């Protein structure tokens, strides 16, 4: 009987120790200041292939009832060209949260993965220095997917960023959800927006 009680006490003690540890952890990416939410990316962010107001930043804003949202998507942007406009289009606007959707054009142009990750690291680093939270939007490519994934994981851990993984899963390659070989249509962007909104909803909750 004594042994049974000891086992029960040990189990309960372990449970409460684990609960206490995790309850003390700060959420990695909840916003800590006022300011606009900026969607920073390429043609997917800009909404190529979507009807007016059907780009995923607009859909996320509607879903979460957000009023202070900026779409800073530029078609054709690589991580390098995005880095060059980061200050003017993001940092100078003092955002509270930035959704970064980049890497697709790097992949299409067959740029070295290490250069893409280096540029993303610099982008996220500069944003985090302002106190803004960062959400990285990940796309799984048909080649070198493990290298990209490892890079995204490293950046997320280093800067306490959140990642929306494989945002085009089930969309890319599905003719009913794509406007062309690269860009979703309205229905495809709606699915993207739902996936991103799910993450943002948690980050924007009062804390």
From TrEMBL:
InterPro entries: Ester_Hydrolysis_Enzymes, SGNH_hydro, SGNH_hydro_sf
Any one GO molecular-function label of the UniProt entry: phosphatidylcholine lysophospholipase activity
Domain SGNH hydrolase-type esterase: 39-191
Pfam families, alphabetized: Lipase_GDSL_2
Name by which UniProt lists this protein: SGNH hydrolase-type esterase domain-containing protein
Protein's organism: Candidatus Woykebacteria bacterium GWA1_44_8
Organism ancestry: Bacteria, Candidatus Woykeibacteriota
